[in-house]
Design brief:
Layout (H helix, E strand, L loop, with lengths): L3 E2 L7 E5 L6 H5 L17 E4 L14 E4 L2 E12 L2 E17 L15 E4 L9 H4 L7 H10 L4 E3 L8 E19 L2 E11 L4 E2 L2 E2 L11 E5 L6 E5 L4
Parallel strand pairs: 3-7
Antiparallel strand pairs: 1-2, 2-4, 4-6, 5-6, 6-9, 7-8, 9-10, 11-12, 13-14
Length: 237
């Protein structure tokens, strides 16, 4: 039996099948192209037939490993003097995202990092339905028949580079205010607040950069081995 756990212990969120340590597709069943050596590339590949439930890994983003610590500090003080009550303080927040979760949800079919196969009706559908009196060339049982015969018509595997994505965000705020008892019937409250939200960073460098002159956006492509970066245009100049 395989158990799925979303929160195994405080501090780290691991959504996974507990059998991820086993390369069930490559080592267990000898299916080439599935699994690899990294932990999130283990477990069963995904096997899908239209009209039937998925076999193996159920989602293309599993298993995933997340360690997202957060730190927050808030401080304030008050000073009462004559008719004034002065309040001042600040806050400081640090957020970290350390995630290992390969997935692709920008269109098309996507399989988990362990690999996956799709079985359609093409290999087993009716070749000449009109002569045999069938109203349709295929149905969901043709998809399942393709699965039983091992005749897939789609396959793939999600690949993540680098192994982990590390993102850090910091937020700062300072404020000061005064409540002034001008008269017995008039009270004035005023103050000022400053907030700063630096752009998130990834490994001590900007994690996202925009080029507004390019309507389709600009993508930062990295060489995981050499640490080099280059810009790539998709759909433009």
């Amino acid at each position: 039996m395989v158990t799925n756990s979303e929160q195994l212990y405080i501090g780290t969120n691991e959504g996974q099948n507990l059998a991820w340590v086993n390369n069930a597709g490559l080592s267990g069943k000898g299916i080439p192209g599935t699994n690899r050596t990294r932990p999130f590339e283990g477990s069963w590949p995904q096997l899908s037939s239209s009209g039937f439930g998925l076999l193996g890994t159920q989602h293309n983003f599993m298993p995933y490993f997340r360690n997202d610590p957060q730190f927050a500090w808030n401080g304030n003080a008050s000073w009462v003097h004559n008719k004034h009550t002065v309040q001042f303080g600040g806050s400081f927040v640090i957020q970290h995202l350390n995630q290992q979760q390969p997935e692709w949800n920008a269109g098309g079919t996507s399989w988990p990092a362990a690999g996956g196969f799709g079985f359609g009706s093409g290999p087993t559908q009716c070749a000449n339905c009109s002569s045999s009196g069938h109203s349709s060339s295929s149905n969901n049982y043709n998809d399942f028949a393709s699965f039983l015969l091992g005749l897939d018509n789609g396959w793939g595997r999600n690949i993540q580079v680098p192994n982990y994505f590390h993102t850090s965000a910091q937020m700062f705020a300072l404020y000061v205010g005064d409540t002034w008892q001008v008269t017995r019937k008039l009270t004035a409250t005023y103050g000022v607040r400053w907030e700063n939200y630096p752009f998130p960073t990834r490994d001590a460098r900007p994690s996202l950069r925009l080029w507004p002159r390019h309507p389709s956006g600009l993508h930062l492509v990295e060489d995981a081995g050499g640490g080099r970066q280059r810009w790539r245009n998709d759909g433009g100049g």
